[in-house]
Design goal:
heterodimer; A: mainly alpha; MetI-like fold; 15 helices; B: alpha/beta; D-Maltodextrin-Binding Protein, domain 2; four-stranded mixed beta sheet; 18 helices; 13 strands; cell membrane (chain A); ABC_transporter_permease (chain A); MetI-like (chain A)
Chain lengths: 317, 435
């Protein structure tokens, strides 16, 4: 006997009990036709994500130059070189780590501070929130060009102001100083995105029931204690989002680096994403693919460690 | 049997099996080899001839030449009504990094250009340049200026522009300071810089924050110091080292130049340098003649020329300056309209049209018999006859090696000791060679 979908739906809706094991499993089973619905998404995923990822693994063990039909299988030597014989990759990873630390800490703290100060929906707060959010709607390339001229040692606003107030000794070459250049780029990144992340914190803060603050106040909690024991644990989800987003963003600050540092950037401004791009440009597709896989592993590891760190700090309060 | 209105049921197990088979198939396909999916390299052939028809793409990176090319295209289309030409322009950095992949697809760049050096070598290797050796158009060019478009005896492309990659001078200032006789050795050059500095000027505006432009000075600094003319190729091959005496001497000379650059020069981009120079605050702009048009656009009206620091004594100097032949025109082997592409290239190679390009963009060209009417080109024309070296920095085929070697010069200006900078650069060179 043929059972239609409508029959089965009616039977389930009427509360009819299945009569046997087969009937029970048939009722619980997803109708096979429904498998067709995710198919377009699966195809897109396979073609644009899974396929290229598999290919990246395949390229990573070759010396393919990106256009030749011929290539050599080099086994794990690309990975060995990355680990032991590549100052450029190591330098980029170190720069990326510095960039990441500065951006994650400064951006999280600044956006949280702004959110705490501007969480009320008064007219002035709303205006200020909009102002702080403004850089987020600019493209990274525009931000890079604006700041490139801010950092210019000769005509840039920062050195002009320092000179104007008699602090000539503090004038700097900014992006031209190899030991500090990456921090100046990090500062730009913080400026551009702190307002955007402030919005996430504001949303998190506005979810906290007012009663908790009132109880804490009745218990004699200071402003700091209220923040530490009420606000901080309850904005854990928002913090996790902000930190995870900032981390990924720090690894992918590609356009900002190229905008500020040129293409290819100097070693002092090179981060992992720009290093991989330069390797591709250098017609070393196999090696660049290996770098991409190491990059992927680093992002996964850092994200995992951060998740654990955020959990520990917020559970431990 | 459990059936429904969709017919035979597809169990979860079957669906997973199908997905597994599909995935394995995809993986096997991927294992077929990267080259096989990307189009094989083909040996260069001569472009097809016949009646020129169709819509062709002209791929290049000179956005500043767009209007001049547009005029030439209009004239070409009037003369060849069955052909239309579209300019596909990318910023030079993007062109350097992605043009090859786009052009070999054949959808853009029926006629295309390449930078001299690594990009040209890769494009020839990828088989996108047609063999132009036996085309009549070869006769339109100065033979000595198109060697950069050859490889293994085959003429693949035609370097169209001749530029002088050496410091541009404000002749009002430099002429007065030198009495019309440029310095012939290193000490005289330093004396000139000293004299300019004492007048409250920046002797040399150098864009140390822009590695691409900062590297142009490198050409002049090594041209007489190095033991051979193929010094950069030899650094890349391992025959020369950055720790060799001649390179250390070059780094020490960069150190000597530091006081004569604008303050904080390692952080200065090229645009502020142009501004300093155009407003007569600097006597020299250490990039190249290709910036003259941009400086004029900033309002500069003073006479300009070029100068190369002679880093040795006068008797040991082999070269007076640097030139580069670049913007290497070629016909794409993957083009569907090769006859039209060839017709456009031939049109550009006619002296009248090349002259219009040259005078409109303030750049000399490699085409024979061109009449230069632009005053800046006239001023620089004597350099076409002087003893100049083809810019050596483009001998590097590995861009990471080039960046490391040129980066050593920037690092020295930034305060690093020449020995340490040389050692760091050589370490990168060695690593790149061994990878």
């Amino acid at each position: 006997m043929t059972e239609t979908l409508q029959d089965r739906s009616r039977r389930v809706a009427d509360g009819e009990a299945p009569t046997g094991r087969r009937r029970r499993s048939a009722a619980a089973r997803t109708h096979p036709g429904l498998w067709l619905f995710p198919l377009p998404a699966l195809v897109l995923y396979a073609v644009f994500f899974a396929g290229p990822t598999i290919q990246a693994f395949q390229y990573s063990i070759t010396d393919w130059d990106g256009f030749s039909a011929a290539f050599q299988n080099v086994g794990t030597s690309n990975f060995e070189n990355i680990a032991t014989n590549d100052d450029l990759f190591l330098g980029a990873a170190t720069n990326n780590l510095k960039f990441l630390l500065v951006v994650v800490i400064a951006q999280t703290v600044l956006s949280l501070l702004l959110a705490v100060l501007l969480q009320r929906n008064s007219r002035s707060s709303t205006t200020l929130r909009a102002l702080f959010f403004l850089p987020a709607i600019l493209s990274s390339v525009s931000v890079a060009f604006v700041w490139k001229f801010m950092y210019d040692p000769n005509f840039g606003l920062i050195n002009q102001v320092l000179g104007g107030i008699g602090l000539d000794g503090l004038k700097s070459s900014f992006l031209g100083n190899a030991s500090t250049a990456i921090y100046w780029v990090a500062l730009t990144q913080v400026w551009a995105h702190a307002g955007q992340l402030m919005v996430i914190f504001v949303a998190g803060l506005q979810q906290i029931p007012e009663e908790l603050y009132e109880s804490a106040a009745l218990d004699g909690a200071s402003q700091w204690q209220r923040f530490r024991f009420v606000t901080w644990p309850l904005i854990a989800p928002a913090t996790a989002i902000v930190v995870a987003y900032t981390t990924i963003q720090s690894f992918k600050a590609f356009d900002l680096i190229l905008g500020l540092g040129g293409n290819p950037p100097k070693g002092s401004l090179d981060i992992l994403s720009t290093r991989i791009y330069t390797t591709f440009t250098n017609s070393r597709f196999g090696y660049a693919a290996a770098e991409s896989i190491v990059f992927m592993a680093i992002i996964a590891l850092v994200s995992l460690l951060q998740r654990r760190a955020v959990r520990l700090t917020q559970h431990g309060v | 049997m459990n059936k429904n209105t969709f017919g035979q049921p597809l169990s979860r197990r079957t669906a997973l099996q199908l997905l597994g088979v599909g995935g394995a198939g995809a993986a096997l396909t991927a294992c077929a080899g990267p080259g096989s999916t990307a189009g094989a390299t083909s040996a260069a052939s001569a472009p097809a001839t016949g009646k020129p028809t169709g819509a062709i793409s002209f791929a290049h990176w000179r956005a500043e030449d767009k209007d001049v090319f547009a005029k030439l295209i209009t004239a070409f289309q009037s003369a060849t009504p069955d052909v239309t030409v579209r300019q596909d322009i990318s910023p030079s950095n993007d062109y350097q990094s992605s043009a090859l992949q786009r052009i070999r697809g054949g959808s853009v760049g029926d006629v295309f250009t390449a930078f001299r050096g690594a990009q040209f070598v890769d494009m020839v290797k990828a088989g996108v340049y047609s063999d132009m050796s036996k085309q009549a158009v070869v006769q339109q060019y100065e033979p000595s200026l198109i060697t950069a478009g050859q490889q293994d005896g085959t003429q693949y492309g035609f370097p169209y522009q001749v530029v002088f990659n050496m410091p541009v001078t404000n002749e009002d200032i430099i002429g007065k300071a030198t009495g019309g006789t440029p310095p012939k050795d290193w000490q005289s050059f330093l004396d000139l810089c000293d004299k300019l500095k004492s007048q409250g000027l920046v002797p040399i505006a150098w864009p140390g924050g822009d590695p691409g432009n900062a590297g142009q000075l490198f050409n002049s600094m090594v041209m007489n110091n190095a033991p051979s003319d193929d010094m950069c190729a030899k650094i890349e091959s391992g025959e020369y080292k950055c720790t060799d005496d001649w390179f250390l001497t070059t780094l020490k000379q960069y150190q000597q130049l530091k006081p004569y650059f604008q303050p904080n020069s390692t952080g200065t981009a090229v645009e502020p340098c142009q501004q300093i120079f155009a407003t007569k605050k600097a006597a020299m702009l250490a990039t190249g003649s290709y910036h003259i048009a941009a400086i004029r656009a900033l309002g500069a009206t003073f006479p300009m020329n070029v100068i190369s620091p002679i880093t040795t004594s006068a008797d040991k100097a082999k070269y007076e300056g640097i030139y580069n032949a670049t913007f290497i025109l070629g016909v794409n082997t993957h083009s569907q309209h090769q006859a039209a592409a060839l017709a456009w290239l031939e049109f550009l190679s006619q002296p009248a049209n090349a002259g219009e390009y040259a005078n409109g963009t303030s750049q000399h060209v490699t085409v024979k018999g061109v009449e230069y009417t632009n005053p800046d080109l006239k001023a620089l024309a004597p350099w076409l006859q002087k003893k100049t070296l083809l810019a050596p920095r483009f001998q590097f085929n590995n861009l990471d090696i080039r960046s490391a070697v040129e980066g050593a010069c920037i690092a020295v200006v930034g305060g690093k000791s020449p020995d340490a900078a040389a050692a760091d650069a050589q370490r990168v060179v060695d690593q790149q060679r061994s990878q």
